[in-house]
Amino acid sequence: MLNRFGHLETPPVGPFRFIALDVETAGRTISGICQIGLCFVSDAGSMQTYSVLIDPEGPFEAFNTELHGISAETVMGAGTFPTVYASLFEVLNTHSLVQHSTFDEKAMTAACARYGMPMITSHWTNSVSIARQAWPSLKRAGGHGLANLKKHLGLEFHHHDAGEDARASASVILRAEEIFGAPLPYLRTNRQLTFSFENRP
């Protein structure tokens, strides 16, 4: 099943080389996640994108809704963070993760703290840092945000949709590796052991 941007509504079966993760939030509270997007990258470089809406159990700010198009009506009937997170915990906790900036990890950590749930222990890579290494000249030419990288690299995605931004972050990593002439050594399949969500303290 696909959403409006063609993303999967059920996560694909791994293992994967790495997973890029992006979140959208409902308002000023960073723990109020209303969408999670994941891009699953294989060893061959193929990408599969998944996204899921979440009821943030809190108010939506007009600014946020204007940015990502998600409102209280949009998430009506959607699962809450604990339900969605529990279903994703194992796949997230057993793969290296990529985020563009550190906002996504902070939001996930805050949401876990809010609901008293264990935070994933995966290794996180910041694709902003990787982009700075690959394209240093952009520092004075619009910076290394996804919007500017979209223009500079000719990426095609709908900014501020979590699934789309996750795919963009993954694309930045893959394009940077072309510049480096080698894959990032810490982004490889099966680098972590499997942990059971139910057995976590």
From TrEMBL:
Domain of life (superkingdom): Bacteria
UniProt key word Magnesium: no
Alphabetized Pfam families for the sequence: RNase_T
Keyword Transmembrane helix listed: no
Gene3D superfamilies membership: Ribonuclease H-like superfamily/Ribonuclease H
Keywords associated with the record: Exonuclease, Hydrolase, Nuclease
GO MF entry, a single one: exonuclease activity
InterPro entries: Ribonucl_H, RNaseH-like_sf, RNaseH_sf
Boundaries of every Exonuclease domain copy: 17-182
Protein name as catalogued: Exonuclease
Organism per entry: Ruegeria haliotis
